[in-house]
Design a protein that fits this description.
420 residues, Spore Coat Polysaccharide Biosynthesis Protein SpsA, Chain A, eight-stranded mixed sheet
């Protein structure tokens, strides 16, 4: 196992200087020099404005940036606190930029943040992405205050998103998490979270830091671990999330594999918990919810339909291994439909997701080979959703997704019956 970050001399010296702290905000990074300065200033402003009597630290956990990211962190600060309506500079604010150790990935960066939080015995923490362009000082209040003053252990973000954005969350992760763990956390893989020092210690004690969690599964792992561990969970409305655009040439099947693989792995770990849960309850929401102007999301329906049909042609023999015959029949019929005649009903989609989970559980195929074969089916489901909801309001879309959630809950007994 990799050496803990806090045994490094430069980190030890910094920890001795700080001693202890009330609050900690962590920023994982890798080559984010162009945006991280704004994030650092927003964090400092939020701590100064909303927690003026607290001793706070900012920790940049960096993955070896070569663009000067850590230098930007060290040199970024609020020069005039009157601009943010704060009378004077807060004396108890410390920050550090350090390299994390372990497997390259966001999870290893978080591990460093958890270690420092435990060493400083902080009461409340938050982590925010380093490429955020829409972060404001109010985000820090919304992520930390429910923990520091409200007694919650975990604060999930609630963003305003375009109805065709976040489709992996909407079609799989949100309804699956809600059905399994019985809590309606709308964006369980949002990327910006608040959590208690107690929960940070619990995260740190888990034996996952040499696994895929350390590479790409940290967001869903944090949410699921909080839910399964019966920690107090809430959500905070943060408005729009605007950050660096992702590479449009990125492999969609790789992204889908990473997220779904992590969610399915959590099913193995927490079977004793989710197998006993029925239905779902609401999770408290903090913050003033308001409408946000959002960038349109372009969707090439023709290309999506082509990818779905091609996937059915090429992958049918793989799916026959674990999907029910009636589902195979549906897919064959659906692949022949064109235009607005195409529909992918929720009951068929949920059956497919649960049977993929069962196939991974039973190790019927190599995990990556199995889950990457889900890609054309996911594309087909999203295409159907776009055609169905293209003229719908955001409220109508949320009602539609609530129906999908109920279908996941309805079919959960069948999943349990087949889970060995």
């Amino acid at each position: 196992m990799e050496e803990e970050i806090i045994v490094r001399k430069e980190v030890q010296d910094w920890l001795e200087l700080v001693g202890s702290a009330d609050l900690l905000v962590g920023i994982p990074s890798f080559n984010n020099a162009g945006t991280i300065g704004h994030v650092v200033r927003a964090v400092q402003a939020g701590l100064a404005k909303y927690f003026p009597d607290c001793k706070a630290v900012l920790v940049n956990s960096d993955g070896g940036s070569t663009d000067g990211t850590r230098d930007v962190v060290e040199n970024s600060a609020i020069d005039d606190f009157q601009q943010i309506l704060v009378a004077q500079r807060v004396p108890s604010f410390f920050k550090t930029a350090t390299l994390y150790s372990g497997i390259p990935g966001k999870g290893s960066a978080f591990r460093t943040i958890f270690e420092i939080a435990e060493a400083l015995q902080v009461k409340a923490c938050a982590v925010v992405d380093s490429d955020l362009r829409s972060i404001t000082p109010e985000w820090i209040e919304l992520l930390i205050k429910p923990v520091y003053e409200g007694g919650f252990d975990y604060v999930a973000p609630l963003y305003q998103r375009h109805k065709f954005d976040g489709t992996i969350t909407n079609s799989i992760i949100y309804p699956l998490t809600r059905a399994l763990y019985g809590r309606s956390v709308r964006q369980p893989i949002g990327g910006d979270f608040g959590f208690s020092g107690r929960l940070a210690g619990h995260y740190l004690s888990q034996d996952v830091w040499e696994s895929d969690v350390a590479r790409f599964g940290i967001d869903i792992w944090m949410t699921t671990t909080a839910l399964a561990g019966n920690f107090r969970v809430c959500q905070s409305f943060l408005g729009a999330k605007i950050h660096d655009a992702k590479d449009p040439g990125a492999d969609l099947s790789a992204m889908l594999y990473q997220v779904v693989s992590a969610a399915f792995d959590m099913m193995e770990r927490y079977y004793d918990t989710w197998s006993k849960i029925e239905g779902a309850t609401k999770v408290p929401i903090f913050g003033f919810e308001y409408a946000v102007g959002l960038e349109p999301v372009s969707v090439n329906l023709e290309r999506m339909m082509e990818r779905f049909s091609l996937g059915v042609q090429e992958l049918l023999d793989i799916w026959r291994i674990f999907l029910p015959p009636e589902t195979i029949d549906f897919l064959c019929r659906a692949a022949r439909r064109k235009g607005d005649d195409f529909r992918f009903p929720d009951e068929e989609w949920v059956t497919i997701i649960y049977h993929f989970a069962l196939a991974q559980h039973d190790r019927l195929l190599a995990k990556e080979h199995l889950l990457k074969s889900l890609t054309p089916l996911y594309i087909g489901k999203v295409a159907s959703f776009v055609m169905e909801m293209r003229d719908s309001t955001s409220t109508e879309v949320e009602e539609r997704l609530a129906g999908l959630c109920r279908e996941f809950e309805k079919q959960k007994p069948l999943l349990l019956e087949k889970w060995r």
